[in-house]
Amino acid sequence: MAATLQRFPRHADPDAVQAALRDDGAAIVEGLLDADVVARVNDEVEAAVAAAGAQPPMFNPVLEAFHGGQTRQVAGVAGISRTFATDVMCAPLLLALADRVLLPACARYQLNIGHLLQRGPGAEDQWLHRDEAVWSDVPRTGGVELQLASVIAFVDFTRDNGATRLVPGSHRWPDRALSPAEQMVQQPPSADAIAYAEMPAGSAVVYTGGVIHAGGANTTTIPRRGAHLSYCLGWLRTEENNYLAVPPAKAATLPRQAQELLGYAVYDAIPRGGGYLGMVRLQDPVDLLARGTL
């Protein structure tokens, strides 16, 4: 029997969803976004998606192979779509889950990456991987989670058009303690261990950084558009440089909560007996944004 994921509505008890993340490493939230939010984001990113085919090569050829030639990728979506920055990045259930998963190990979490990925017809199965591999030098000790990630559907996701593939329970596999290079030579998951995040537009599959997953193959004639949105511990270097992707002039137009998630708020661990990171002139940058002095 093929693997499955637990499903929850948007207004589910975050503790119940967290329990599913603890058990399986992943869960589907149906109807995370209202239809009008989905429509507005799709409209606001349309020009960027159209232009993505003419983008220069990625900085490392491995990334070209990882994403595949049939995938259009739009980076820094929070700086392109205001709706994404306010209604998607700040979705209450996602933040409630990030509170539970990440705050035990940090004073503040932040946006790690907010990309739109449109897997076109002919896109092949992506390589199975763990997102936390980007922090390959951080030890996996004491059950600390580095990241909470999601893939959000901006069209209906089906197995045929490339719904995200995930391996429930793989966050508890012993090979997670190995280096990313060592993990790559392990026995791949069996076909019946893989679940497909089939879900309607506006829904999301949420998963922790230790879950093996990948984009699926698109055997249809219609592009599959989704967003990869993840948060990470506030003391980690983020996958995307959000200060350049959403520079101060643009960030100043967003609500404070979005500014904080983008990393403009100081990381203040003094109340936890630690130190601080990211100050400017001994001030909290998010306050400088509000005063127009950054």
Which class best fits the helix and strand makeup? alpha+beta
Tell me the distance between the termini: 56 Å
Q: What percent of residues adopt helix (DSSP H or I)?
A: 25-40%
Quaternary state of the chains: single chain
What's the name of the CATH homologous superfamily? q2cbj1_9rhob like domain
Extended strand count? 12
Report the average pLDDT across residues.
93
Characterize the overall form: globular
For the largest sheet, list the strands in their spatial order. Answer: 1-2-8-5-10-4-3
- What is Rg? 19 Å
User: What's the structural domain tally?
Assistant: 1
Give the SSE order as H and E letters.
EHEHHEHHEEEHEEEEHHHEEH
What is the count of DSSP helices, taking H or I runs of 4+ residues?
10
Share of β-strand residues: 15-25%
Explain the layout of strands and helices.
Blueprint: E1 7-9, H1 14-24, E2 26-30, H2 35-51, H3 61-67, E3 71-74, H4 82-88, H5 92-102, E4 109-119, E5 147-153, E6 165-166, H6 180-184, E7 195-196, E8 204-208, E9 213-214, E10 224-233, H7 242-245, H8 248-251, H9 256-261, E11 267-268, E12 276-277, H10 285-291
Parallel strand pairs: 1-2
Antiparallel strand pairs: 2-8, 3-4, 4-10, 5-8, 5-10, 6-7, 6-9, 11-12
Helix pairs in contact: 1-5, 2-4
